[in-house]
Amino acid sequence: MKTSKFLLLFLTLFSVAGMSKAQNLPSQKEIMDKMVLANGYFMNKWPDTGKSIITNRERPSNIWTRAVYYEGLMALCALNPDKAYYDYAVAWGEAHKWGLRDGIKTRNADNQCCGQTYLDLYEMDKKPERMKDIQASIDLMISSDKINDWNWIDALQMGMPVFAKLQKITGDYKYSERMYQMYNDCKVTQGLYNKKEKLWWRDKDFLPPYTEPNGEDCYWSRGNGWVVAALVKVIEILPNDPHYKEYKKTYLEMMKALLPIQREDGFWNASLHDPNNFGGKETTGTALFVYGMAWGVNHGLLSAKKYLPAITKGWNAMANEAVHPDGFLGYTQGTGKQPSDSQPVSYTSKPDFEDYGLGCFLLAGSEVYKMKK
After folding, report:
1. Rounded CA separation 241/183 (Å)
2. What is the pLDDT of residues 324-333, one digit of tens each?
3. CB neighbours (10 Å) of residue 97?
4. How far apart, in whole angstroms, are the C-alpha atoms of residue 27 and residue 74?
5. Contact at 8 Å (CB) between 37 and 360?
6. Are 232 and 295 in contact (CB under 8 A)?
7. For residues 264 and 208, what is the distance between their CA atoms, to the nearest angstrom?
8. Domain architecture of the chain: domains with CATH
9. 3 state SS for 202-236
10. Helix (H, G, I), strand (E, B), or coil: what is residue 167?
């Protein structure tokens, strides 16, 4: 009898302790304020949208890193239609004459990523120059039989939404069908998706027998985040696509696999299955996972009861621990392809490019904001 009473008391105390740790999402105003703060820091630092980016070398500002930022800016603009945001995006396109790095002959998804924002802006104001070059580039790809260009998983996020948007705008299924062929080649033919673990190897360099120091397969956080973003966008853009069920199935599998490996502090590790290999807080992968989970709840594909705690912990972790008082975004891993790249990552460390991390954060914030309605 005493044992039963003790057990009941223990469970009660444990339950109360757990409840005390439960978190709540902040108000819509607080969520928006964090996005506006972080975005304001960037826009103030980069007033010239056409200015080249100089790190270890000089690059034009229509590369993938900046393109991902503008994806986030467009999501923010949809919720907070500040004319300054729209003008900033249009100025970026105009500065590059709505063109792509390496021209329309490029087959590199990184160079085509800017087309996502170009096409968004085209849908807002149907000026033909906004979609001319990106459509020409994709048409050149489709005119050949080559489908194995996407041989690293980041390419799915950079390229798939462009194909999906072109299909939506033109009504021509050649875009969505070629998109599926290339996606399937990356996933199945090249074998970058582990059907057992429900996560993706970044590229062929990380296929077995490659392992992390703890013997687990290497699943890079941001790389898997790119896939999440790609699937979310394609599902939303093309809800009636013939391959919708396939995209949805893989998306749900990934969400289920990612949920139990979230850190207690709300972040995800850069190495998803080896928390001791460059373990620590990391914003970009976390932002993309929060974005995917919040989007799923908002669209009725995920259970709010099951995923809201993870979304809340993830957003609060980024908003409270990564965003500096001036809007600078900490714990952002720089460019690379694996957990060890651009390390160490800390609150004050500055990545080689400050733009794409902000884009990921704004994508997450845009969906978390919608959850508070």
Report:
1. 14
2. 999 999 999 9
3. 11
4. 21
5. no
6. yes
7. 29
8. 25-371 (1.50.10.10)
9. CEHHHCCCCCCCCCCCCCEHHHHHHHHHHHHHHHH
10. helix
Spatial CA neighbour of 315 closest among 38, 68, 69, 25: 25
Amino acid, res. 222: R
Helix (H), strand (E), coil (C) string for 56-114: CCEECCCCHHHHHHHHHHHHHHHHCCCHHHHHHHHHHHHHCCCCCCCCCCCCCHHHHCH
Measured CA to CA in angstroms, residue 223 lies from 153, 270, 334 at distances of 6, 9, 12
The string over 145-159, giving b where at least 16 C-beta atoms fall within 10 Å of a residue's C-beta and e elsewhere, is eebebbebbbbbbbb
Three-state SS at 340: coil
Give the model's pLDDT for residue 252: 98
The secondary structure of 13-28 as a DSSP string is HHHHHHHHH------H
Split at pLDDT 50, 70, 90, the class of 372 is: confident
**CA–CA separation, 143 and 128 (whole Å):** 21
Tokens 């199935």 — which residue? 249
**215 — alpha (psi -120 to 50), left (phi > 0) or beta?**
left
Compute the average pLDDT of residues 269-290.
97
- Per the DSSP assignment, residues forming a β-bridge with 59 are 53
Peptide bond into 209 cis (omega under 30): yes
Q: Which two tokens stand for residue 349?
A: 């460390």
Q: Are residues 258 and 244 in contact, defined by beta-carbon separation less than 8 angstroms?
A: no
Q: What is the pLDDT of residues 306-339, one digit of tens each?
A: 999 999 999 999 999 999 999 999 999 999 999 9
- Asked if pLDDT for residue 16 goes beyond 60, the answer is no
CB of 335 closer than 8 Å to CB of 351: yes
Cα 235 to Cα 240: distance, rounded to the nearest angstrom:
9
- Token pair, residue 7, equals 């057990």
Q: Which of 70, 101, 100, 99 is nearest to 87 (CA)?
A: 70
Q: Record the pTM.
A: 0.94
The fraction of the chain above a pLDDT of 70, given in percent, is 94
How large is the average pLDDT for residues 9-17? 39
